[in-house]
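Intended use. Records like the one below are meant for learning the mapping from a protein sequence to its folded structure. Do not use them to infer anything beyond what is encoded.
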Amino acid sequence: MKKVVFVLCLASSFCSYGQIKFDKDELLSNLVGTIESDRPGQALNATTCGVLAFQIQTGFNYTSLDFPFGGSSKNQTVPTNIRFGITDVWELNTSFSFTNQIFNNGLGPTTVNGFPSPEIGLRAAFLKGDRWKPYLAIQANMSIPSKRGTYQQPGLGSSFYLVTSNRFKHISINTTTGISYSGFGGNAANYPYVLNIGTMLTSKLGTFVEAFGSFNNSTLNLDGGFSYLATPNLQLDLFGGWLGDSNWFAEIGFSWRYSFFQKMVGKNIKEIDSILN
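Structure written out for the chain above:
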């Protein structure tokens, strides 16, 4: 009799589990979340790109500069950032760019192009925030010496940044402050800062304004722009700004993420769903 009762209970349990319905895509989205990018703008993001996630952030930048003692420069740059999230806390990353500069000193244009020294970085997002409790992260970079090309850097460069983010329902306040040492010689330190305020206009369209510069001088730079979340793993952006006097820049780009964690979990969820249904 006891065996009969046990079998009936077991069958009843399986019947109950077989009636479970869940949205696989929604479950995956909740587990992995949407893409977190350093673009657009100058401020860094106080999170990693995700557990076992690969992310590329790139774009095209056009900058127009007028020099104080005459002459000008028109710069075209492709800034690129590659990130790999190990955990929610640790991330490896690297940044590099291709730059084309056209100088005009009144005697005719001179064109210079090449790859500045790349940077290798490590990010630790050691605190998750909530409203007035900020997200906190530290980003450390090392720029590698180069002996070839136009932008030769004879020595190692380094930089360290403290990144914060307070996120409320309709607005976020983000800061990046740090110290950097050039790889071109000298022991003088630079102290950059960024103050970024962003908001979501819709569930996919965001905008921001930003002030940035260096504590070493009184120049204040301003920029602003828009981001569009095309998919949970793809973000498009457009922004531009003023660099003091008559100097300005404009940039367009995108961020794309591939989550190995999402791929692995997705396979397991499909197997569970096939068993239950």
